[in-house]
């Protein structure tokens, strides 16, 4: 899906790692949410409170999920992150992403 209909967008950006990772929240009528963002090259560690689906729209990264090995992910691919976990990313080139929070 390249476009979302009938949503609210939170005006203020989420800014992480001194501006290397940014996103904006999109809220749907049913209360579900996603974030749309950009990650610049670098290495990052994130924590989750909910299960997440990370859809990589464009870019190139490596991900280390819990109890797994590093995996390469490119634009057009996705991966899921378990609830209440930590995962690491190595962003190899500017990466455009959509993160869905799964309850």
From TrEMBL:
It holds the Pfam family Ppnp. InterPro entries: Ppnp (IPR009664), RmlC-like_jellyroll (IPR014710), RmlC_Cupin_sf (IPR011051). Keywords: Glycosyltransferase, Transferase. It is an enzyme of class 2 (transferase). SUPFAM superfamilies: RmlC-like cupins (SSF51182). It catalyses: a purine D-ribonucleoside + phosphate = a purine nucleobase + alpha-D-ribose 1-phosphate; guanosine + phosphate = alpha-D-ribose 1-phosphate + guanine; inosine + phosphate = alpha-D-ribose 1-phosphate + hypoxanthine; thymidine + phosphate = 2-deoxy-alpha-D-ribose 1-phosphate + thymine. Its EC number is 2.4.2.1, 2.4.2.2. It comes from the Bacteria. Catalyzes the phosphorolysis of diverse nucleosides, yielding D-ribose 1-phosphate and the respective free bases. Can use uridine, adenosine, guanosine, cytidine, thymidine, inosine and xanthosine as substrates. Also catalyzes the reverse reactions. PANTHER family: PYRIMIDINE/PURINE NUCLEOSIDE PHOSPHORYLASE, PYRIMIDINE_PURINE NUCLEOSIDE PHOSPHORYLASE. Belongs to the nucleoside phosphorylase PpnP family. This is Pyrimidine/purine nucleoside phosphorylase. It comes from Thalassotalea fonticola.
């Amino acid at each position: 899906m390249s476009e979302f209909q009938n949503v609210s967008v939170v005006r203020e950006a989420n800014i992480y790692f001194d501006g290397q990772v940014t996103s904006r929240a999109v809220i749907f009528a049913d209360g579900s949410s996603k974030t749309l963002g950009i990650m610049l090259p670098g290495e990052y560690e994130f924590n989750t409170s909910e299960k997440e689906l990370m859809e990589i729209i464009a870019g190139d990264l490596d991900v280390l999920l819990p109890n797994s090995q590093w995996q390469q992910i490119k634009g057009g691919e996705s991966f899921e992150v378990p609830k209440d976990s930590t995962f690491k990313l190595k962003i190899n080139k500017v990466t455009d992403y959509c993160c869905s929070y799964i309850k």
